[in-house]
Amino acid sequence: MDEVVHAAGRKERRVRLLPARVVVYFVLAMALFTDCGYRGVWAALTAGLPGTLVPDPSTAALRQARRRLGTAPLALLFDRLRGPLGTADTMGVFWRGLRLVAWDGTCLEVADSGANIAHFTRHGVRTTRPAGYPQVRLTALVECGTRAVIDAVFGPLRHKELPQAHDLLPALKPGMLLLADRGYDGFEAIRDAADTGADLLWRVQAGRLLPVIHPLPDGTYLTLIADRRSGDRLAKWLHRGRITPLPPRLTAITMRVISYEVTVTDSGGTRRTSTVRLVTTLLDPNKHPACELATLYHQRWEIETAYYGLKVTLRGADRVLRSHTVDGVEQELYALLTVFQVTRMAITHAATTAGIDPDRLSFTIALRTARHTVIRADASGPARMAAILTHTRNLAAPRRRSRTSPRCVKRTLSPYAYNKTRGSVGHKTTVTTTVTLLTRTARP
Question: 59: which of 95, 183, 347, 368 lies 20 to 30 Å off by Cα?
Fold first, then answer.
């Protein structure tokens, strides 16, 4: 704490009742006790300390201390703690020597103040009434096996996911396998991500042109993903029936296409089948089997679980960030990310030591234990947390139940639109994944 405060130039010049280091702890405690006001957070932070040594600042004093501290110390603290946590001894982190990572974007609501509205803006709705709260757009790169945050960027809602993902490229390294959904399948995004040395396993949109350049024996094939101009030339070449060699000087990337079907059978016996198309830079079908890659892509949803832990379990369901200024929102977001990352560090360390998959350890129990540790000022907190997390009664099942939850409007604008939430409860399902052989030579 002292190092980041000093590096940010926030070290106080005179002795204060609320030194900068203490304020950093207070801001982190705000992220841990999101349901408490300033005085409640301070009470939880100092409850286990001798009463004669603890000052009793007012809400205004705590607010002014936050403003003096600024955003830089929290940003530096998160920058020191972010990064992958899994090691070779951590279960579920690597696949055939590649570290599984994923990126995606999400939004968080912030306080409805004039400064926040002007900077972050509200999201659009289909009615003439504006949305209730301004929002921050956050894009993160997450380690799938531990759900640790490797890096994250955020900004106003007008900042789109693709530019934010581009800012995460320095965090990609050789030896990583990046999973992404259909929103990132543009040529520039694929090219820039592949240039980092990381391997890719991305889903692509159904209408994307993926010509069969070279069929592979396992039913997959090699294709060319080109920029817009080269894509038009490829389309004309296909339209002519391939009677000439490939057009010269194409700006394109060679990738392997894996197409497979997913059949979902719910508890009522209803079956739904959908086709998924993936492209990958892993071109060798013997070294990287298509069936394993098709199953592996499901790990992309680990980032959604990580966002749930950040936005619901840690922040609290239906809560908005409390800060009414732009600097306060950024400071609060860095504190949330830091507390989330530290909790993931504790979970990963406990799981690795016990030889357990981190997925089986509860993020909720870890947060509850951390809150009790802070309130009681328990010096044995880390060891106690590891013992609680790995206790038999607190471990999740080795294999998750297969369930689906249909997308629907859960936060309706009208209090009378009860039918819009009908069917939003998850149902037990049976999922069958089949890799299908493609025989057509044009557009799969």
Answer: 368
